[in-house]
Design a protein that fits this description.
Keywords: Centromere, Chromosome, Nucleus. This protein has eight helices and eight strands; from the N terminus they run H-H-H-E-E-E-E-H-H-E-E-E-E-H-H-H.
């Protein structure tokens, strides 16, 4: 009897628990419905946004394809796109923007070098582009074998660039950029020095380039001081071949005190801190140098000559003209001597000379 009553009480409690849960769920149902409706609305909005993005992406892909391929029917596709969409110009700009972003991203990935696989992936062709002041100059190429070890097979790097020593000092077996980065520094510095020399010849006709070498690591210029009308030789030495600015500037003239004057010390600092063609422009504005041109009919060449130390007389000159002393064969003195002799030559005559050793 007690067991039956206990069983009846438990059943009744279970029934009450089920009824309580049912009533609770009925009270929560309206709020749950609202929550589901809001979620459905958000999903519909997200669906519409994705559809718009897909359409935009398709349009961008279409324009990108026409930009990349540069086909003849490019204009026809653009006209068709203009008919399909009122925002075709905006889409075109967006396509160009994404194209440039992709190019920049790819350029960053390869470290600024153009890399092409060759021989079915067994080799690489790396192109290093040089530039100066935003102007692209020469391209230099390296063809490299990847197996059995990474090595340079062919290149068009100038022979005075220390490519072999750079390769030996690098760790190109595991990181090729340890070779390419210093090589790029050397090549860009050389291209910058070469471009500066070109600009000096183009922009400063009054400045005479007396000497330069293939690496453009030595440059000898001649200009004159306006007040004294005195010629000055300026030697620029670039001992750091990874830079385009000189490491040493030396002036030579008849006035021994001029190079040590504050004015010309300032000019020396200017030449060491500023590209030479810009420094010369500043020096002209300051009135430190002016036009000084050699006679057109006197052409000094090195190392041919019109002076022969083994002969008593110079070639084709009067007996009263003596040979050049061995201790004074600088560019400056040679130029002064040629200028003083200019009246003895007829226009159109070329004079070549070799300096005594």
């Amino acid at each position: 009897m007690d067991g039956a009553s206990t069983k009846g009480v438990l059943s009744h409690l279970s029934l009450l628990e089920v009824q309580a849960r049912s009533r609770k769920s009925e009270r929560q149902q309206p709020s749950r419905v609202k929550e589901l409706k809001a979620k459905a609305e958000a999903l519909r909005t997200q669906r519409d946004q994705l559809k718009a993005e897909i359409e935009t992406h398709k349009s961008l892909q279409k324009l990108r394809a026409s930009m990349d391929k540069q086909c003849a029917h490019e204009e026809e596709e653009d006209e068709e796109m203009a008919e399909d969409s009122e925002n075709s110009e905006l889409l075109r700009l967006m396509a160009r923007h994404t194209q440039l972003k992709d190019l920049l991203h790819a350029h960053d990935i390869i470290g600024g070098y153009s890399v092409i696989k060759t021989r079915q992936g067994k080799g690489l062709c790396v192109s290093v582009t040089t530039a100066y002041n935003g102007v692209y100059l020469e391209n230099y190429n390296l063809e490299m074998d990847l197996k059995p070890t990474v090595r340079i097979s062919r290149d068009n790097i100038p022979p005075f660039i220390p490519l072999k020593s750079l390769a030996e000092q690098s760790n190109m077996q595991t990181d090729i950029r340890t070779l390419l980065d210093p090589l790029s520094q050397h090549l860009n510095a050389f291209a910058a020095r070469k471009q500066q020399l070109k600009l000096v010849k183009e922009l400063h006709k009054s400045v005479k380039v007396m000497e330069s070498n293939a690496l453009c690591s030595l440059l000898v210029l001649m200009f004159t001081v306006p007040r004294e009308k005195m010629a000055v030789l300026c030697s620029l030495e670039y001992t750091d071949h990874t830079r385009c600015l000189p490491t040493r500037v030396h002036f030579e003239c008849e006035d021994q005190g001029l190079p040590d004057s504050p004015e010309w010390k300032k000019n020396g600092s200017l030449l060491m801190e500023t590209p030479v063609h810009k420094a010369l422009k500043t020096m002209k504005k300051m009135g430190d140098i002016y036009s000084f041109k050699m006679p057109r009919y006197v052409e000094a060449r090195r190392p041919l000559c019109w002076f022969d130390p083994s002969r008593a007389k110079p070639y084709g000159l009067d007996d009263g003209i003596t040979t050049l002393p061995k201790t004074s064969h600088s560019h400056l003195r040679v130029h002064q001597l040629l200028t003083s002799l200019s009246g003895k030559f007829t226009p159109g005559t070329s004079v070549a000379l070799t300096l005594p050793r």
